Amino acid sequence: MNQQTPTQTPLATTPIVRLFKAQGAAQPLPDPNCALSVAEVRRLYAPQYPGLINAVIEGPVESEHEGMLYHTYTFAEMVAKKG
Fold it and tell me: What is the pLDDT tens value at each position of the chain, 83 positions in all?
C-alpha cells in the first residue's frame, strides 16, 4: 500500500499596521503599542489632542501599500444635535 503524506505549504502572512487619524494631526498617528485596544490608544493620545476625549472611533478602513496591510481608524469628534 502506497501512502503519500500530504505536502503542507506555509501560509503567507501579511503584517497589519494600525494607523490613527485625529483632527488636528497633520499625519496619521502611529500605533504606540499593538497590544493596546483602539480605545486605549485614543486615551493615550488624548492629552496631545483634547478633541479625542469624547471622539467616536470609526473604522477600520483597510488598505494595502507595497505588500503591507493597513487598518486606519479615525477619531471623529461627536457632533451635538440641538433639538
Answer: 566 666 777 777 778 999 999 988 899 999 999 999 999 999 999 999 998 999 999 999 999 988 899 999 999 987 666 65
pTM, 2 dp? 0.76
Provide the pairing of β-strand 16-22 with 29-30: antiparallel
CA distances from 52 to 6, 18, 44, 57, 78 (A): 52, 17, 10, 9, 9
Domain count, the chain: 1
By residue range, what is the domain housing residue 36? Answer: 16-76
